[in-house]
Amino acid sequence: MSVELWQRCLVRLEDELPSQQYTMWIRPLQAAVAQEGAELVLFAPNRFIVDWVRDKYLERISELFAELQDGPVPTLTLRVGAARAATPTPAPAAPAPVATAAPVVAAPGQQFASPAAKETGPVAKHRHNLNTSFLFENFVEGKSNRMAAAAAQQVAENPGTHGYNPLLLYGGVGLGKTHLMHAVGNSMLKRNPNAKVVYLHSERFVADMISALRNKTINEFKRFYRSLDALLIDDIQFFAGKEQSQEEFFHTFNALLENGQQIILTCDKFPKEIDGLEERLKSRFGWGLSQPMEPPDLETRVAILKKKAEESRIELPNDAAFFIAQRIRSNVRELEGALKRVIAHVRFTGAALDVALVKEALRDLLAIQARQVSVDNIQRTVAEYYKIKIADLLSPRRSRSVARPRQIAMALSKELTSHSLPEIGDAFGGRDHTTVLHACRKVKELREGSTEIEEDYQNLLRSLTS
Ligand SMILES: Nc1ncnc2c1ncn2[C@@H]1O[C@H](COP(=O)(O)OP(=O)(O)OP(=O)(O)O)[C@@H](O)[C@H]1O
């Protein structure tokens, strides 16, 4: 009966607690009945978890027991050890008291050893703390992320391989670093359901380490992290300036690498550029494979929108997808946000999804953008970038050093504003609309043929839209 009570309690705790907390502290617990049902023993894999659960969750667990149990509430005991050692008959083979650690049999991400806990219910359902919707299958590849995705696939297939360890994915916000990192973890678990894969944000690592130091459980802390098959740490830029955490992480990192356990890291920039990060860590991070992730190009943005719409079972016409992708270019998270607004609008109004509906759904966003990107602004930015005068852009001068930036500024004006070709021509010293059209075609051709021009164009786009 009491084990059942624990199962019901777990369902409630899973609802109440942030999923990382639940995965880290509650899921490793195994319940066993003792004293003919009068006592419920919760076994934790190590002392660290026992102390933590006692401090943070025991009171709530007791309250839930009182609430969920009709009859007498069993007493609750926390111990280090495995549930199978606590069966009521024969008399408990002296499961280790809290202070004397028994063998560690389960950890977050690991399947429980106890046959009783293997069956059904929330315990069996979730054995790791990965986001199961971040998969390779729903990651859309394009020029900007293909290398990173390929590296991640390699790691998923051969975790711990020298040369791919650590895998470091770096780049701006919302570009799919976390998605790929979880995709590797999910793929590892698919291949080996017993793999111990733990994901955590670097701030969480720091917070846990500080608590472990305060509670004098740093050895358990170390043992736990060093027992993993794969450690996934997000946003390592947060280690900057936290010397003691860097020190501990450095040792954990080395221990895992030495044992061939996989490490995957993400960072918002190339680690060498992070101030406040120790040189030895910076150099360690670069030992394996470092892959940049860039903002996706137009075609990839369209493909991502189409994929996400399909997942939401919404038919997104190409022109509507292009319309969104042309306007939202900074990152995928914003792209997703815009699409969600469009989908909500479709569902709310019941109207057909077309460009007009997209304009209506994203009205505020587009208005903000229109205000931000004006032809004036584009001219100023382009002139600054190429170190020429704005007056040159508007003048009749045809020398290459002026004509090329002018064409680029015109193409950007067409792409970033809603002005017509004649309006753009007017803004560039009263030129004809065919000149603007020619400029747009020329720039497209130049971008395809020259990486330098493509880079210039992307740099300008970024500085105008971010
Ligand atoms: N190529 C892609 N295909 C499909 N979805 C993507 C892709 N890139 C990003 N996403 C989605 O965009 C959202 C943001 O991605 P993610 O959280 O992985 O970004 P991030 O680079 O880790 O950003 P941050 O540094 O802000 O955490 C997620 O919902 C993710 O699924």
Automatic annotation (TrEMBL):
Residues 163-294 form the AAA+ ATPase domain. It comes from the Bacteria. It is found in: Cytoplasm. Residues 347-466 are annotated as: Domain IV, binds dsDNA. Keywords: ATP-binding, Cytoplasm, DNA replication, DNA-binding, Lipid-binding, Nucleotide-binding. ATP binds at residues 174, 176-178. Its main location: cytoplasm. Oligomerizes as a right-handed, spiral filament on DNA at oriC. Plays an essential role in the initiation and regulation of chromosomal replication. ATP-DnaA binds to the origin of replication (oriC) to initiate formation of the DNA replication initiation complex once per cell cycle. Binds the DnaA box (a 9 base pair repeat at the origin) and separates the double-stranded (ds)DNA. Forms a right-handed helical filament on oriC DNA; dsDNA binds to the exterior of the filament while single-stranded (ss)DNA is stabiized in the filament's interior. Belongs to the DnaA family. NCBIfam families: DnaA. Domain I is involved in oligomerization and binding regulators, domain II is flexibile and of varying length in different bacteria, domain III forms the AAA+ region, while domain IV binds dsDNA. This is Chromosomal replication initiator protein DnaA. The lineage of its organism: Bacteria, Pseudomonadati, Pseudomonadota, Gammaproteobacteria, Oceanospirillales.
